[in-house]
Structure to design on (733 residues):
């Protein structure tokens, strides 16, 4: 039987008529929300009447008894009088979307109670520009079902406005669920209404695995057949049952029962591992306003379309983008001309193509960083970078890749899911949009090992007298030796206070996170000036008009720096320092001859050393920082292990013992540990010499991805490092 949500159109028409005062808008939204809740609760969904929890799930924190997604999308055209009179294209294309997600959850413990006790959501978003209009409204509904069957719907009075955006165009709300207890069931829904004018919808994702077991998940879609609907099933997701209603609208349905496997919290990538369906819906008549890819020009349904056709969409988009690069996102022609003038000088230098490419990449990025009004996205960066390379005759090839949070290229679903790159064919170096402050040709972790495609190398084909074809390959991936985090600690004991001087040396993928977290714009500016040999006065280089603004940005960064290093200490130890004594970034890590990101931090810690009669007890193991503890249901694994990268952690720790004290030999012996297998290792060596306790420790993960069969071996390594954290040694007088 057809079940749709056209009943909401009357209320929506009331809401979306002429603008009113803010108070009237809030009343309209309140009416809309109340009517929506009534209609959603009245939907006939048999799966939501099943409240029995199978015995096999009795120990689960929470169980999703039923989940339901519902999607209805329609299109219409509208005559725009103003555009007609102004001589512009006068037909506006509108897409309306009603999107519902509802689930019924059994709450079994405190963790689940906390998880489902508070919700944030965006009540309304309104954006309007020339020939672009977006209205978005979201309604949250919550009911509590008590063990005796009593149903308590949460009153709208419990919904509180948290913040409002500029000119009240974005209203955020928060709900703290009152009266929810362990043993209750919570019935929740999110309903989204979106109306877009001359613009296409964001993609929809249907996920067939969650963090809790799911007894039932059903999906129902009704989509105007005059739109183009493309969807792809990934990672073993079930396919839709396809049909049409009496009006020719596309109907898609799927139902799955008893989804036992859940998403682990640790070392899991949903896009690569969770069964899911990606859906893109395009109004191909919007070509007057936006790029419409060729694959979407055929109206109707395309299930699991040919990925090669989607790739062609992107190649065509690249061709169009290459025509409109301007000054590469710089805020003025003067800045653009200065960049071109400086880059042109590189052409005369007797440098390798790789050195020229690195220099130009860095100079272009520095120009953007020092232009606070620059506006450059990843696509424009690569397009303009290619233009600069072409200008100085550095051979290069354009390419595409997807990161690990997108589908692989052989399953590409939409052209906008790619990232563009450039390759130097002779040296096989690859240049992607900037990530943190890596060396230009360093490949960020999320792209390593991913499928990529390069445009045909016509020069090579001509030399070999072969046909020039696109090259399909995988980007290089680093090893555990490439991605290192070396921690060097000098610790001094002062009664029950431990003073820690810690140096962090990070290479490869281990740089990215901390570079982004700790590096300040002034440090970046100084590092790039040294790298590029820029000796001009600051104001002359960036322009006097912007120098004061940039100096103010530097000042604000310095103000935040102390708090950032306090955060870093908490990140490392899992607790705050008693006092932060000093910090310094030593090396940014953005050049081949000094590729490591290096910084120092000095602080005191309480609780690491305690008195025991005439002796001290030193929590030596805690100096390696807080290690991940794997416990509870996380110790059982049915999904492959998906890490950020293979990597190595190394600690070189020296504790200067108080004068007259020695570490008890039996305690030192316990600090020697060795666990090693095909997945990696945890190896610790401890000695005492010259009044010092010296620890040399290594923890290594050999691979980015491990099969489920190797989980126990990984547990051995992880358990050993966590157990080491608890080891202490007695210091005897």
């Amino acid at each position: 039987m057809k079940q749709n949500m056209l009943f909401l159109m009357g209320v929506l028409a009331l809401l979306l008529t002429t603008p009113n005062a803010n108070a009237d808008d809030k009343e309209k939204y309140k009416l809309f929300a109340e009517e929506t809740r009534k209609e959603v609760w009245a939907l006939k969904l048999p799966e939501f009447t099943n409240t029995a929890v199978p015995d096999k799930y009795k120990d689960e924190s929470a169980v999703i008894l039923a989940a339901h997604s519902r999607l209805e999308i329609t299109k219409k055209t509208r005559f725009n009088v103003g555009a007609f009179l102004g001589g512009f294209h006068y037909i506006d294309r509108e897409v309306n979307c009603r999107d519902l997600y509802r689930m019924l959850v059994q709450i079994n413990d405190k963790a689940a109670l906390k998880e489902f006790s508070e919700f944030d959501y965006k009540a309304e978003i309104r954006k309007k520009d020339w020939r672009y209009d977006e209205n978005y409204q979201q309604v949250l509904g919550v009911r509590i079902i008590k063990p005796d069957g009593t149903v308590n719907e949460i009153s709208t009075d419990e919904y509180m406005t948290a913040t409002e955006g500029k000119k009240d165009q974005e209203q955020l709300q928060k709900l703290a669920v009152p009266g929810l207890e362990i043993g209750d069931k919570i019935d929740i829904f999110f309903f989204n209404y979106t109306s877009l004018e001359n613009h296409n919808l964001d993609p929809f994702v249907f996920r067939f695995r969650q963090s809790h077991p799911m007894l039932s998940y059903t999906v129902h879609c009704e989509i105007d057949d005059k739109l183009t609907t493309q969807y792809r099933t990934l990672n073993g997701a079930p396919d839709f049952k396809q049909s049409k209603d009496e009006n020719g609208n596309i109907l898609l349905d799927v139902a799955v029962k008893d989804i036992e496997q859940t998403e682990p919290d640790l070392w899991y990538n949903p896009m690569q591992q969770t069964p899911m369906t990606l859906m893109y819906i395009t109004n191909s008549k919007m070509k007057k306003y936006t790029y419409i890819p060729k694959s979407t020009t055929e109206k109707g349904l395309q299930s699991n379309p040919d990925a090669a056709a989607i790739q062609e969409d992107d190649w065509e988009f690249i061709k169009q983008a290459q025509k409109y690069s301007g000054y590469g996102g710089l805020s003025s022609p003067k800045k653009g001309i200065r960049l071109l003038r400086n880059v042109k000088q590189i052409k005369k230098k007797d440098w390798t193509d790789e050195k020229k490419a690195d220099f130009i990449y860095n100079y272009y990025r520095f120009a953007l960083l020092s232009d606070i009004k620059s506006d450059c996205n990843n696509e424009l960066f690569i397009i303009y970078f290619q233009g600069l390379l072409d200008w100085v005759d550095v051979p290069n090839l354009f390419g595409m890749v997807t990161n690990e949070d997108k589908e692989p290229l052989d399953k590409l679903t939409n052209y906008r899911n790619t990232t563009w790159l450039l390759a130097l064919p002779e040296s096989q170096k690859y240049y992607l949009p900037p990530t943190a402050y890596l060396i230009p040709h360093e490949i960020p972790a999320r792209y390593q090992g991913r499928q990529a495609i390069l445009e045909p190398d016509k020069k090579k084909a001509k030399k070999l007298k072969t046909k020039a074809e696109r090259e399909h390959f995988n980007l290089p991936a680093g090893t555990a030796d490439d991605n290192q985090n070396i921690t060097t600690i000098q610790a001094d004991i002062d009664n029950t206070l431990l003073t820690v001087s810690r140096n962090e040396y990070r290479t490869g993928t281990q740089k990215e996170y901390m570079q982004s977290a700790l590096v300040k714009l002034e440090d970046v500016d100084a590092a790039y000036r040294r790298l590029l040999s820029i000796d001009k006065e600051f104001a002359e280089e960036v322009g006097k008009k912007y120098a004061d603004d940039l100096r103010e940005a530097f000042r604000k960064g310095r103000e935040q720096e102390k708090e950032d290093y306090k955060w870093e200490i908490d990140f490392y130890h899992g607790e705050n320092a008693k006092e932060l004594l000093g910090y310094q970034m030593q090396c940014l890590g953005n050049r081949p001859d000094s590729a490591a990101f290096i910084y120092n931090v000095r602080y005191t810690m309480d609780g690491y050393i305690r008195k025991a009669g005439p002796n001290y007890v030193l929590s030596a193991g805690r100096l390696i920082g807080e290690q991940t503890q794997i416990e509870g249901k996380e110790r059982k694994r049915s999904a492959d292990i998906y890490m950020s990268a293979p990597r190595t952690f190394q600690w070189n720790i020296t504790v200067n013992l108080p004068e007259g004290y020695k570490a008890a030999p039996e305690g030192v012996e316990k600090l020697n540990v060795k666990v090693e297998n095909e997945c990696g290792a945890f190896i610790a060596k401890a000695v005492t010499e010259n009044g010092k306790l010296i620890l040399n420790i290594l923890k290594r993960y050999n691979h980015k991805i491990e099969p489920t069969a190797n989980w126990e071996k990984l547990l051995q390594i992880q358990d050993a490092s966590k157990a080491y954290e608890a080891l202490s040694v007695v210091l005897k007088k």
About this structure: The longest strand covers residues 62-79. The chain has 16 helices and 34 strands. The first helix runs from residue 9 to 15.
